[in-house]
Amino acid sequence: MPRPLESIEMIRRLVAMDTTSRNSNLEIIGFIADHLAGFGIEGRLVHDEAGRKANLYATLGPTDKPGIALSGHTDVVPIDGQTWNSDPWQLNERDGRLFGRGTADMKAFLGILLVKAPEMLRREPTTPIHLVFTYDEEVGCLGVRRLLTVLRDLPVRPYACIIGEPTDMKVMVGHKGKMSMRCHVHGRECHSSLAPEGVNAVEYAAEVIARLRAMAQRVAREGPFDADFDVAHSTVHTGVVRGGTALNIVPKHCSFDFEFRFVPGVDPQALLAEVKGFAENELAPQMKAVAPETGFTWEQISAFPGLDMPVDSEIVAFVKSLTGGNSVGKVAFGTEGGLYQEAGIPTVICGPGSISQAHKPDEFIEVEQIAQCEAFMDRLMDRVCRLPASA
Q1: Chain-centroid distance, C-alpha 36
Q2: For residues 137 and 133, what is the distance between their CA atoms, to the nearest angstrom?
Q3: Which of 193, 154, 195 is nearest to 344 (CA)?
Q4: Are 106 and 73 in contact (CB under 8 A)?
Q5: 328 by DSSP, 3-state: which?
Q6: Residue 180 neighbours by CB distance under 10 Å
Q7: Nearest to 113 by CA among 97, 133, 134
Q8: Pairing of strands 172-175, 329-331
Q9: Which domains are seen in the chain, by residue range?
Q10: What angle do CA 228, 232, 238 make, to 5 degrees?
Q11: Distance of alpha carbon 245 from alpha carbon 231, whole angstroms
Q12: Tens digit of each residue's pLDDT, the chain (391 residues)
């Protein structure tokens, strides 16, 4: 395959923009909007409540009938605490690999869309191609929710969606759902020499965390199972604990963050009710017997549904034909796909790069993957455009 010079240069420009989720994404959205406008492609912006971030939605081809959405998020995860061998905000090529934050997840896909957009327009799509650029996917798939609210009220919306998350250009039809929670444990502080007069928030938090671990072990043992996932069962995981101020003070407060990643058919609310029931019914009475003001409060951090597309659906067959492959799979990581499907837009995941290279120091994508994605886009145009490539 020829070297994808234009796409590499576009990826270079996108990587240079620090779009970590905590930052505004208006710089990159402005760049994308200006790039598309230069070819006469008008994009619609859907901002967040504060006006600091925006989704962009653009349609190439007829606007009076539904088309295929090509969707990707503009935000990336932080580099904080990571040791890189090159500047993460400058594209660096070594041994056929492009290094930089977001190269795999997922600025390579965005760059390819921007490079291919004028050709898509020139070839006159008979089936519309919708280009979708979202914000805050990495912190709970927040931006796409506002976009889908707008799309719901449009007279015409996409009939299917391809999300270009990194799958090595293989067709993925499902991923687990996720619910992230924060538990606040409220105790009573006192001098540690008088520990029985206090309520140790850290120790009660530890009891809940131990119950979560027992739940994780039970689910791993009993299922339900879906062998298409790398980890075939739902998972329960505690990732962050905060509590205590000094060893000689019984801690008044502790909080911890935990998550459920669940296979299709599992109700995360039932899992949450189980752990909350243990805390509220078994532990809280012990705490309140010492200090009535103690107890637990619960806060949802984020949640998104899983994706579970039937393997015999039209969009799955269509995307398989574009890749030339016959198999499908499911991914362990979450995407915006479940929200698209929940909104009535059948969705598959297929994009360049590997998730095993994402979110880590020296994130990279193989140049060969970029070339494969370009070929995928060319085959898509062959299927939905009036004019051939040579026109």
Answers
A1: 25
A2: 10
A3: 154
A4: yes
A5: coil
A6: 19
A7: 133
A8: parallel
A9: 5-174+306-384 (3.40.630.10), 177-304 (3.30.70.360)
A10: 135
A11: 38
A12: 677 899 999 999 999 999 999 999 999 999 999 999 999 999 999 999 999 999 999 999 999 999 999 999 999 999 999 999 999 999 999 999 999 999 999 999 999 999 999 999 999 999 999 999 999 999 999 999 999 999 999 999 999 999 999 999 999 999 999 999 999 999 999 999 999 999 999 999 999 999 999 999 999 999 999 999 989 999 999 999 999 999 999 999 999 999 999 998 899 999 999 999 999 999 999 999 999 999 999 999 999 999 999 999 999 999 999 999 889 999 989 999 999 999 999 999 999 999 999 999 999 999 999 999 999 999 999 999 999 987 5
Are 232 and 226 in contact by the 8 Å Cβ rule? The answer is yes
- Helices 201-222 and 268-278, axial angle in degrees (round to 10): 140
- Tokens 């590997």 correspond to 354
Q: Report the C-alpha gap between 76 and 107 in whole angstroms.
A: 9
Positive or negative, the CA dihedral 180, 299, 145, 35 is: negative
Q: Where are the alpha helices (DSSP H) in the chain?
A: 5-15, 26-37, 108-122, 143-152, 201-222, 268-278, 284-290, 314-323, 337-342, 367-384
Residue 130: phi, psi to the nearest 5? -100, 125
Residue type, 295: G
Looking up tokens 């500047």 gives 87
Instruction: Tell me which residue has tokens 């965390």.
Output: 209
Q: What is the Cα–Cα distance from 113 to 108, expressed in whole angstroms?
A: 9
Only one residue has tokens 């990495």, namely: 138
Residue 140, burial from CB neighbour count under 10 angstroms (0-12, 13-18, 19+): middle
Nearest to 328 by CA among 344, 350, 345, 306: 350
Cα–Cα distance for residue pair 186/253, rounded to 1 Å: 5
Under 8 Å between Cβ of 213 and 196: no
Burial tier of 306 (Cβ tally within 10 Å: 0-12, 13-18, 19+): buried
Contact present, 106 and 72 (Cβ < 8 Å): yes
